[in-house]
Design goal:
Oligomer: single chain
Radius of gyration: 15 Å
Distance between the termini: 18 Å
Strand content: 15-25%
Helix content: 25-40%
Number of helices: 5
Length: about 140
């Protein structure tokens, strides 16, 4: 993180649930016309927040958000169950929000996952997450 201080992030007290609530509120600010629903805390099927988007001709697609508040770099293993469940449950888009940066191998595996499954994956980690916050929250 370049701009948001350690004091800012200390507000979360290393609490993943609080981080999920923050991301949900951030999404609500960015997309005020969308509904974002948090999942139950355990056995959530690998997702933290869900939404639906209406496409042309009334079709709906599933959108999944996964939130990770880890101190260390996020690895592919940290979200492997999310990726599997997104495929099995026919999610069309997955957004990953990570406080920590991701490792290089993670990006390589995500590229392969996108190619094989055709599921769109967007990652907001470290400074990308920080920019998303700074550009949308006063």
């Amino acid at each position: 993180m370049k701009h948001l201080s350690a004091n800012y992030w200390n507000n979360f007290h290393k609490d993943g649930v609080l981080f999920e609530k923050f991301i949900k509120e951030l999404l609500t600010i960015i997309y005020p016309d969308k509904e974002f629903t948090p999942t139950i805390q355990t056995h959530d099927g690998g997702k933290d927040i869900v939404s639906k988007a209406e496409m042309l001709f009334g079709d709906e697609i599933n959108l999944w958000m996964e939130c990770k508040y880890h101190k260390d770099k996020l690895s592919f293993n940290d979200i492997s169950s999310t990726l599997l469940m997104a495929f099995l449950e026919d999610a069309k888009q997955l957004l990953v929000f990570s406080y920590s940066p991701i490792n290089r191998t993670f990006l390589e595996y995500i590229a392969k996952y996108r190619d094989k499954t055709k599921i769109s994956v967007k990652i907001y980690d470290d400074e990308a997450l920080e920019q998303l916050i700074l550009s949308n929250v006063n």
